[in-house]
Amino acid sequence: MLNFKDASDFKGRNVNENLVNLKNNMDKLASAKDINVAYHLNAFNKTATGAEVWYWLGDPVGYAIAKKLSAAIAKALGIVDRGPNATTNLYVIAQTKGVTI
């Protein structure tokens, strides 16, 4: 059974505060065994499109989840699957406990 917990931030007054608050909220709710999902919707120039899911570089569990989730989002929305993307510098992914995508 899936158990989702909301770690949203509605108090941050700028991007940095928002990211720190999200990380702290996730850490309060999650253990090292949990999977954290932070989502962000981009708007660009009307020509770039697609779904992509970021994960921590070298995390095979995060990679597998990111790959499946990216494909599922793309299929459901009828857009390009840009696939999983590895990172070591996105703050929320780098700083939270457990697997974060």
What does this structure look like?
The chain has 101 residues and is α/β, with parallel strands linked by helices. The protein contains three helices and four strands; from the N terminus they run αββαβαβ. It has a two-stranded parallel ribbon. It has a two-stranded parallel sheet with strand order 2-3. The radius of gyration is 14 Å and the shape is globular.
Topology summary:
Blueprint: H1 15-29, E1 35-36, E2 51-56, H2 60-77, E3 81-87, H3 91-95, E4 99-100
Parallel strand pairs: 1-4, 2-3
Number of contiguous helices = 3
Overall shape: it is globular
Strand content: 15-25%
SS elements, strand count:
4
Helix percentage: 25-40%
Task: Please write the string of helix (H) and strand (E) elements.
Answer: HEEHEHE
Beginning-to-end CA distance, first to last residue: 20 Å
| Structural class determined from secondary elements | alpha/beta
**Physical arrangement of strands within the biggest beta sheet:** 1-4
